[in-house]
């Protein structure tokens, strides 16, 4: 699994590529937790190049969001219709901040 990482201002953007499934969720989790634990004030997860996320991947997103406390921001963006549907069905769209694209996510973060 490949995960792109970049910094824009005080935000760290993580872009998982292709799939986050049961075999790759540990890699995704390690990267998310490393960035969360680095103390960065803003994390944007850009799903624009993701075509599948399993329940294991959803758990990583939820854990990362819960760990961002004390005024820190954790936002998601760039979901394809298929990925958005997974987040809708899981109920995560009600508890996470989701934006249509990276620019909107960075502006909100």
Outline the structure in words.
The protein is an alpha/beta fold and about 110 residues long. The protein has one domain: Transcription Regulator spoIIAA, CATH 3.30.750.24. The protein has 4 helices and 7 strands; from the N terminus they run βββαββαβαβα. The strands form 2 sheets. The protein has a 5-stranded mixed β-sheet. β6, α3 and β7 form a beta-alpha-beta unit. It starts with a strand and ends with a helix. The model has no long low-confidence stretch (mean pLDDT about 95).
Give the beta-strand count.
Answer: 7
* Uncertain stretches of 5 or more adjacent residues: none
- Kindly give the count of domains: 1
CATH structural class: Alpha Beta
Note the beta-strand portion. Answer: 25-35%
Strand order of the largest sheet: 1-2-4-6-7
Quickly count the helices.
4
Q: N-to-C terminal Cα separation, in Å? A: 26 Å
Instruction: Estimate the mean pLDDT confidence.
Output: 97
Instruction: Determine the CATH superfamily.
Output: STAS domain
Order of helices and strands, N to C? EEEHEEHEHEH
Overall spatial form: globular
CATH T-level topology = Transcription Regulator spoIIAA
Largest sheet: 5 strands, mixed
Family: Belongs to the anti-sigma-factor antagonist family.
GO molecular function, one term: anti-sigma factor antagonist activity
Domain STAS: 1-109
InterPro entries: Anti-sigma_ant, STAS_dom, STAS_dom_sf
Put the structure in a nutshell.
Belongs to the anti-sigma-factor antagonist family. The chain is an alpha/beta fold and 109 residues long.
